[in-house]
Amino acid sequence: MADSIVKVDDLHKSYSGREVVKGISFEVKRGETFGILGPNGAGKTTTLEMIETLRPIDKGTVTVSGVNVSKDPQKVKYMIGVQTQSTAFMDKVRLTELLEQQAAAYGERIDPLELLKEVNLEEKSTSYIENLSGGQKQRFSIAAALVHKPKVFFLDEPTTGLDPQARRRLWDLIKSVKRQGMTVILTTHYMEEAEELCQRVAIMDEGQIVALDTPEKLIRQLLKRGFKKERKVEQANLEDVFLDLTGKVLGT
Amino acid sequence: MGKVLLIVVIVLVVFRILSKRTPLLACLFKRQKQAKVNTSAPKHRQLFTVLTFAKVSIRRYFRDRVAIFFTIAFPLIFLLVFGLTGKNNDVTFHIGLINQSHSRFSQKFVEQIRSSKTYRIDDSVKNLSQANLKMGRSEIDATLVLPPGFGQTNKQGLPAGKAVIYYDENSAQAAQTLQSVLQGKFESINAGLVKTPAPFGVVAKSTNTKGLTRLDYTVSGLIGFSIIGLGIFGPVNYFPQMKKEGVLRRLHITPLRVWQFFISSVLSNAVIGLISIAIMIAVASAFMNFTIVGNYFELAVLLVFGILTIFGIGLAIGGWAKNENQAAPLANIIVFPMLFLSGTFFPRFSMPEWLQYVTAFLPLTPIIDGIRMIATEGKHLTEIGPQLGLIAIWAVIIYAIAFRVFRWE
């Protein structure tokens, strides 16, 4: 079994007396794509932000590659890349300049064009961020989060608000990031997204993890409990119809 | 004009160094090829980080037309308006003139007054009631009345008469000055008519030193205004906006330190400020007879200190505020007293003494005074120690607060 790169142990967080994360523990293996699922307000984002050094931890410990997040956040910051929910960047700055600046925050000098090529935005290199579409912005902010080649890559609801094609393209991108050997941790509330991308998922509800396993096993367990879907499942759904008609070739 | 060209060239060179990757900068901050990724930043790269951030924000600034308007064009418009309305440095009296006499002397006297530059005559004033109305609105300073029989020959065979100056309480001072000016005029007429020796007299002689003109005050005040616009209103607007959009949060995720962020912001602000001020000075020199007496380099050094200090106020407010609603009122409370009491628009020497004393300690006051002393009085940095000291004290206080209250989100 692969070793764990992120270890979360008995993590707690309260906001003004209300506990939103109630002692959760999990480990993420090196090189896997790990999903945190759950409805709005389940504590997904708060959990992620504590691992990302952005929020003080009330109780419990988090280590990234053996480094304690509360004790040496600066060191952790060099190892992680984060795709935030907001895709805003400074306006009136070219994409290449934004990437150079982002890399400079890590003290690195990079070739921005090469990175833009990886996310299929090389012809937009002299554009400003405000002139990109939603999907392009998402792809660009992934490029920006990866300027320093982090070990662990966090994505917080990466495809919320995107149309189906843009979502598929983003999935392809996340898969290619994983193929490069990066560990990916993402939150989502789209189940098909988790099924498509994640090797293992944790399902959160009201600040606790209610299930943690591979998607297949979770489904099998559910069926074992005698679950039956009320409606017969079609071989295709409306999204497949849409994708077929608008001519987007599905990603591998 | 030579000096103007010089500053323009210097500014262009500085800007070029910062905007293009010149070989000089590239070799100074070149990344080591074998650098280990993902550990921690070596010391020499921290400077690279700061410079890259400064470079990007300078470029960004000069793509922002609204920002350029408020920091360069806006003070320039002010300057042009002040420069055009205040161009004439001579004393002029704006008066109404009512001639009720028909003598040849009085007609000649009126002609003389009209041709003199000392008086501007409002011809719409035909009688005293019109004159009173205009004086009440301060449209004219006083009204000169030549009564019936003024200038007619008296028993000695000489033209004589008493002119009357009407004024209201608002313009008592102007009227008194006008009276003594006219008195002098009549004395010289008298001397021409009656040959009597005058044992005492007074003669005015110019010292030939260049005093401060109104334009000099205006330019240094407007430089102060520009520093405030750039240093306070700028960050107070865009910091909360960057927080709202999550731009600062993205930086918070990176290992970027607050001090690196601060220094890069100060650096870009200083470059932008120097360029804007150089443009203002160039325009004022080229079109408005404004000259800088002092040393350009010393002026630039003072300006950098001034920009740094005032920008700290903007950093503190913008860095602290979660949104515009918190930032804007606080900025106004701090900026407006400085704007009106530090000598930006109104010279401080015209204030009551106690107010002069209090306002001397505002952060902007030593900056504007210092600019005036170097630019128009030709003093050196070594001679403006008290001003530099006060600026330094404020800088320490302001940045101590700014570091303490800064938040990324």
Order of helices and strands of chain A: EEEHEEHEHHHEHEHEEHH
Rounded to an integer in angstroms, the radius of gyration calculated over CA atoms of chain A is 19 Å
Largest sheet of chain A: 6 strands, mixed
Q: What's the rounded overall pLDDT mean of chain A?
A: 89
**Spatial strand arrangement across the major sheet of chain A:** 6-7-8-3-9-10
- Oligomeric organization of the protein chains: heterodimer
Please outline the major beta sheet of chain B.
Answer: 4 strands, mixed
Strand tally of chain B is 4
Compute the number of strand runs of chain A: 10
Q: Supply the helix-strand structural class of chain B.
A: mainly alpha
Structural class of chain A: alpha/beta
| Number of DSSP helical runs of chain B | 15
- Order of strands, main sheet of chain B, comes to 2-1-3-4
Described by the principal axes of the CA atoms, the overall outline of chain A is globular
DSSP helix fraction of chain A: 25-40%
Topology of chain B as a string of helices (H) and strands (E): HHHHEHEHEEHHHHHHHHH
Description:
The complex is a heterodimer of chains A (252) and B (409). With 252 residues, chain A is α/β, with parallel strands linked by helices. Chain A has helices at 44-51, 73-79, 95-105, 112-118, 134-145, 164-179, 191-197, 215-224, 238-246; strands at residues 4-15, 18-29, 33-37, 59-64, 67-68, 80-83, 152-156, 183-188, 200-205, 208-213. In chain A, strands 6-7-8-3-9-10 form a six-stranded mixed β-sheet, with helices on both faces. In chain A, strands 2-1-4-5 form a four-stranded antiparallel β-sheet, with helices on one face. In chain A, a hairpin with a 2-residue loop joins strand 4 and strand 5 (67-68). In chain A, helix 3 (95-105) crosses helix 4 (112-118). In chain A, 41% of the residues are buried. The mean pLDDT of chain A is 89. In chain B, helix 11 runs antiparallel to helix 14. With 409 residues, chain B is mainly alpha-helical. Chain B has two domains: 2-86 and 213-405, no CATH class; 93-191, abc type-2 transporter like domain (abc type-2 transporter like fold, 3-Layer(aba) Sandwich). In chain B, helix 5 links the parallel strand 1 and strand 2. The longest helix of chain B is centred in the middle third of the chain and has 32 residues, at 214-245. Chain B is 64% helix and 4% strand. Chain B is built from 15 helices and four strands. Mean pLDDT of chain B is 83; it is low at 17-40. Chain B has helices spanning 2-19, 23-28, 43-61, 65-85, 104-115, 128-136, 172-193, 214-245, 247-253, 258-288, 296-320, 324-341, 353-359, 364-375, 385-405, and strands spanning 93-99, 119-121, 142-146, 164-166. In chain B, strands 2-1-3-4 form a four-stranded mixed β-sheet, sandwiched between helices. The interface between A and B is medium-sized, with 35 and 34 residues.
